[in-house]
């Protein structure tokens, strides 16, 4: 786990099963249907908000699975199938927006 995130299906499924997750982001283009079903089932079973994104490279960049060049552009981005937020970190406006969105969805 790095920076409050569990990256990849193995770390994410462990965090979801232990109910340590605040939020889960799943790559819709994941090739293994069984993995997607597992993550979706764990999220629904433990009432953990789930967001689906279409691109694994973009999710990998968001999760920090890349190298930044001198200009701050992402290089060598690694495809990521699933990311779980285990620790929100400091209070922020973005966090409040996400929490309000999740509450309105229920």
UniProtKB/TrEMBL annotation:
This is 40S ribosomal protein S12. It holds the Pfam family Ribosomal_L7Ae. Signal peptide: none annotated. GO terms for biological process: translation. Gene3D superfamilies: 3.30.1330.30. Keywords: Ribonucleoprotein, Ribosomal protein. GO terms for molecular function: structural constituent of ribosome. Coiled coil: none annotated. InterPro entries: Ribosomal_eL30-like_sf, Ribosomal_eL8/eL30/eS12/Gad45, Ribosomal_eS12. Residues 2-84 form the Ribosomal protein eL8/eL30/eS12/Gadd45 domain. Belongs to the eukaryotic ribosomal protein eS12 family. One of its GO terms (cellular component) is small ribosomal subunit.
